[in-house]
Fold:
Amino acid sequence: MLRLETARQAGVSLDFFQAQPDLHIDMAKAMSGGFAGGFFAMFTPSAERGKRLGFLLSAPKKGGPVSTERALDYTHSMMDMAEKLVKKGKGRIKICTNAAQISNAIEAGTMAMVLHIEGAEALGKDLSSLEALYQRGLRSIGPVWSRNNHFAQGVPFSFPGSPDQGSGLSGAGRELVQVCNTMGIMLDLSHLNEKGFWDVTKLSENPLVATHSNVHALCPSPRNLTDKQLAAIAESKGVVGLNFSCGFLREDGSHQNDDVPISTLITHLDYLIDKLGEDGVALGSDFDGCTVPREIRDCSGLPVLINAMQKSGYTDELITKITSANWISLLERTLKN
Structure:
């Protein structure tokens, strides 16, 4: 999981193909770290976060909800940015809409970009904008960020806490699940509260996915998954992507301290593998959306984690599954085009 929103900081469009020391990912870091692709999140910030990021578009009014109009404006703007990256990249990056395209891109040395919405405010309660966004390449949706909308309720960043906070999916949320299944759009359960999670398990025909979440038993954040949730994901033959955020790795839940040893990430991976099996675990990162352990630092530090996997006895086959194959398999079973 990476964030397109960070490409509009300080009121300017940053050049992804030039070194950006303040960001976790740019093309140079990606090449250095062996990063082949991922979910690029399009997130509409609150007024406070939008001001901090310096978006060129105006942010929602302080204290008010994120309106459909505002979120749709942001989302189309970030899709414009993604298309400009593809054009400027001249073959170095590609928006992919199915698993075959991702595999072909990786084989060709091209970065595979899967467009993802984090918080579905842009869709509107009647899902009126979904078809247009789908035609532009949208293939993955997280119904909520850690705030409530007309589809569902997101878990807060409080610590410690249970994900069992708030009510389940709304009627619009239930319709969103069914429409995504029909269209072949992946649903991401990261940020969704527990009652919403269980509603999705009853409604969705597809494997359950949490693109960037960790283990609640090891770090009791509401953003992390309980053993019962992990069992449901395993039963559906779904996938959980390891989140690199220090606040979702540390026992104390601190988001500010980056002194998280790589061994802690391995501990979470070991736990996930035990609960989900080798085919159910992947990397979720959350680059440019969190505080990353200092040993990894940014996208160029991915080999540090891979080296730690090797030292922990992970086979080459398992490492390949975790770093790419499990995501591709999941998308083969979820996306339709």
